[in-house]
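Suppose you are handed a protein chain with no further information: no name, no annotation, nothing but its sequence. What can you learn? This example shows the usual starting point.
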Amino acid sequence: MNIPEDLLYTKDHEWLKVEDNKAYVGITHHAQNELGDVVYIECEVEGEFLNKGNAFGTIEAVKTVADMFMPVNGTVLEFNEELEENPETINEDPYGQGWIIKIEIENTSELDDMMNAQQYEEFIS
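A reasonable first move is to predict its three-dimensional structure. Written in structure tokens, the prediction is:
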């Protein structure tokens, strides 16, 4: 299973790629594998401040529909609009072109509560 070392992970199977006080957020390879073929993404919170644990959107796959949750408190800066026409990108490249939102992190100390790659691998094992 692909678990990049340079990302942080949540128990809800989101990942963060942190760049200063901003981060890209997506779902992990494990999550997309469990969901199956992704057919639709809904995210209508661009520009909004959301608290950690709040849903920032839903992901619809062949098997199910699931909420996606904010990993930290922050403002949603951008939604990956490429996913509107090509939601399957999440299955094909979950850690690259399959990113879902870009956020501005309110308090970077919250990142300390997240898992590194090794901890996430143990969590899903």
